[in-house]
User: Fold Fumarylacetoacetate hydrolase family protein from Streptomyces monticola.
Amino acid sequence: MRIARFSIDGNVAFGAVEGAGPGDEGEPVLDIIKGIPYADFELSGVKVPLSKVRLLPPVLGNKIVAFGRNYADHAKELGNDVPETPFAFFKPTTSMIGSGDAIEYPSFSSELHHEAELAVVIGRMCREVPRERVKDVIYGYTCANDVTARDVQKREKQWARAKGFDTSCPIGPWVETDLDIAAASDLAIQCTVNGEQRQLGSTSQMTHSIEDLIVNVTEAMTLLPGDVILTGTPAGVGPLNVGDEVAVTIQGIGTLTNKVIKRG
Assistant:
């Protein structure tokens, strides 16, 4: 099932996406969910066309834990070593935007980059998760773009400003809940800018697996329903300019699209 969060006529709701899969005919619709999707829920039967709503970030997370340099070719292209153990950092929830929202080019940077990533959405409170139980705490998967002020990242010792500025974490368009870990660990991931392919890789190229990342982070902290884990980006990162349209597509999930505007 694909679960989206959206607004229409000033109201915010979650809905199950129908008719957005390969071979589906007709306009996709959202069947509004009663309640919060992380627990048991019912479909209301009230349906609205996807084209009539504004898609929001599909989660209401407490935190975004991101992992850097988790694809060897990406680490190499920026002149970095591949970390022996997962290398985590945080992005604030205020950095999240949905598909169709604008990425605001930060005034303190002149080198903005895209980073297409698979995002894991947590479905239940968990801590010290053993490897064999990781599948039980995952709610689903979505697309993300770890937008980075590369010049700021290079000159500052920590990445809070470079990767945590407002609008630096596009996520969406929805959460796909029907993928298991084996499938999610071998998905094609692509980034285009103005229709031109920039990144093309597979989640199978991760140095540290989805299980590795969740075991690692839950050794240190409790994860809550809706928390997001960014799993790293394949090679091919590159510049974004004002006016560009950047799209992240992940096999079996969908496409996250955002336009870059001047912050004003």
